[in-house]
Amino acid sequence: MRPSASHYAGGEYNQPHFLDSCTLCQKHLSPNSDIYMYRGNAPFCSQECRQEQIEMDEAKEKRWKISSSKRSSSVRQSKDSTTEESDTNKAVRTGTVAVA
């Protein structure tokens, strides 16, 4: 079974080079044009495409941080309420104890 993004050349299937097209808009990148890189190996055809990807990644990270902080906050609240319930169920004696 061959990959969908492969090229057939000389009797074998070859994966395209990662600098062949823009990561965002899939526009072909010519060898004589500027290539804008992001996060090591993501090529872009323009600064605009690169900036759009950066903004999408930042928004995704922000949503992830918000959702993970909500989850950890709800876990903390659950533990706090459990602790409060267990504290109220404990019998505590008050008074003076004399030891002879």
From TrEMBL:
Family the entry assigns: Belongs to the FLZ family.
Molecular function via GO: zinc ion binding
Annotated zinc fingers (FLZ-type), start-end: 17-61
Segments crossing the lipid bilayer: none
Basic and acidic residues composition bias: residue spans: 77-90
Keywords, sorted A to Z: Metal-binding, Zinc, Zinc-finger
Residue ranges with Low complexity bias: 66-76
Name of the protein in question: FLZ-type domain-containing protein
Record bears the keyword Lipoprotein: no
Pfam families named in the record: zf-FLZ
Region (Disordered): 56-100
Cited PANTHER family: FCS-LIKE ZINC FINGER 1, FCS-LIKE ZINC FINGER 1-RELATED
Domain FLZ-type per the UniProt entry, residue ranges: 17-61
Species name: Salvia splendens
